[in-house]
Amino acid sequence: MDWQGQKLAEQLMQILLLIAAVVSFVVGYATASFRTMMLIYAGGVVLTTLITIPNWPCFNRHPLKWLDPSEAEKHPKPQVVVVSSKKKSSKK
After folding, report:
1. Which of 14, 15, 16, 73 could be 48's S-S partner, Cβ–Cβ 3.0 to 4.6 Å?
2. Does the CA dihedral 20-26-30-32 come out positive or negative?
């Protein structure tokens, strides 16, 4: 899954869970049934899971281009710089 696909999956998840929550609350309130509300919401969570977790082709529209190994050898890796900070002791 590419970066844009991850963003799309995240947005779909948020929208679908919000819709499931609103629908389940309205139906649960109208029927005065907490059980019905929870079952409808659980169904929405399962549906959201089936839509967003698998790596569907719509989430792979922008594939990443990896650096060729021969190209990677030409560019040195960045060096880690250790910054030592000396704490000043304040004596009164």
Report:
1. 16
2. positive
pLDDT digits over 35-46, tens only? 999 999 999 999
- Cβ–Cβ under 8 Å, residues 59 and 79: no
CA separation for the pair 62, 60 (Å, rounded): 6
pLDDT tens figures, 53-62: 888 788 778 7
> Token pair for residue 59?
């989430």
8 A C-beta contact, residue 43 and residue 16? no
Sign of CA dihedral 48, 49, 55, 56: negative
Alpha-carbon Rg for the chain in angstroms: 25
Query: Global pTM?
Result: 0.67
Taking the alpha carbons of 37, 39, 42, 43 in that order, is the dihedral positive or negative? negative
Contact status, residue 23 vs residue 38, Cβ threshold 8 Å: no
